[in-house]
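Session log. Operator J.P. requested a structure for one protein chain; no other inputs attached. Running the standard single-chain path with token output.
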Amino acid sequence: MAKSFLNNPNPMLTVMLQCETPEVAIGRIRNANCLGADAYGLQVESLKLEHQNAETFQRIFASGKNRPFYVTNYRIAHNAGKSDDQLAEGLFQLAQSGATLIDVMGDM
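Structure written below.
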């Protein structure tokens, strides 16, 4: 089971990722793993649409070596034009794929 964002004695060094491809995201995660990252934030709206799927999310999360992932799926960048229902479905898919913490837009 992945670590949590809760009940940590110290602040967590969380690396935020804005990447168009999973290969770039995984490369940055591997580098950050070596540099002591505690957690990751994946801004899914930055991923090209063809990479926004459960298989890709699982690959990205697995590269974090059990570190927690905070995810966003906002209606900007590659998600421009998506409906709230589509964004919500993406959040559900992220949860099923292993995201630890999901950011739901307040105006959704």
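Operator note: Residues 16 and 41 are 4 Å apart (CA to CA).
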